[in-house]
Amino acid sequence: MKSKLTVALPWVLFVLVFALLTLSDPAMANKFETIGGGVQGSTKIKVEYLITIAYVASAIFMIAGILAIALHNRNAQTLNYTMWKSSAAMFFILSIGMAAAGYYMS
Question: What transmembrane ranges does the database entry give (predicted)?
């Protein structure tokens, strides 16, 4: 039979972590001047960063789609083993979407 401490400890930890995450967010919100203060510089520089991020994400999704096709029957423990077609299609759609976002931002 489990002791009361063994049964209650996970719940106590969960409540403490939840309270810490819930209560610390509003306390930290007043320490920053603006929400958009993360990237310093003009709007043009910020847009260039976003374009670069969009193209890099597009390339990563494209590589993931290619790997989903190339390695679909390698490991039976992965989701790709049975659903590799839909996985590859989703990666390619995300890749096209990120490339289009980068193109339209420029």
Answer: 53-71, 83-105
Nearest to 50 by CA among 35, 61, 62, 39: 39
Q: CA–CA separation, 18 vs 9, rounded Å?
A: 14
Q: How many CB atoms lie within 10 A of CB 102?
A: 18
d(CA 90, CA 16): 38
Structure tokens at 54: 């969009």
Say how many CA atoms lie within 13 Å of 93 toward its Cβ. 6
Quick one: which of 80, 50, 48, 77 has its CA closest to 64?
A: 80
Asked if residue 25 and residue 58 are part of one domain, the reply reads no
- 50 and 4 share a domain? no
Tell me which residue of 91, 84, 87, 86 sits closest to 57, measured CA to CA: 91
Q: The domain containing residue 6 runs over which residues?
A: 1-31
This prediction has a pTM of: 0.59
Identify which of 50, 59, 58, 62 has the alpha carbon closest to the alpha carbon of residue 106: 50
